[in-house]
């Protein structure tokens, strides 16, 4: 992201706040923080000894011992939450469709190959593929909201080539997808003297973090230290 990006965090804050409230993000807007695991508590104590500020990870998961809260069953990463404690597309809609029952349909395992355009360059249909049945379907649309993260959103726009968009949708200047990169991650491992003394933890993997090093004066845009 360039330093002269035309919008600021303050411009986006109202939208972030609304979504985080709808998803009941722990530790925000009156929702209690998700408690640290035993391993998280050890890490928190070690941070404090080093002068680092530990914080509770904001999660879209209702904490244990709350109404419909987490039961720490280990399904957080790859499975559907059995108690709906975790916000996801199947458990919680961010749209109020109560007055329009049946107005939202979720197509599981359906991949969008491309967006078809009309002659006025407005979306006309989605060309989709369902791997489980090897079925190809075409869905007429009036509008399309693309929210498939930075990489896949750009890939979809570039795949959507037609005589109305010969280089992909919105790609007249050949900039769609340019400059995108995957994140760089670093991992560390810690050991305790008596691991058997720690109770088993089957809830969310991350419950503690720090942002003390999020900003750094040596980075041109301040972020990423």
From TrEMBL:
UniProt keyword annotation of Hydrolase present: no
InterPro entries for this protein: 4Fe4S_Fe-S-bd (IPR017896), FAD/NAD-bd_sf (IPR036188), GMC_OxRdtase_N (IPR000172)
Domain of life: Bacteria
Molecular function terms, GO-annotated: flavin adenine dinucleotide binding; oxidoreductase activity, acting on CH-OH group of donors
Signal peptide residue numbers: none
Keywords associated with the record: Plasmid
Boundaries of every 4Fe-4S ferredoxin-type domain copy: 61-92
Protein name: Sugar-alcohol dehydrogenase
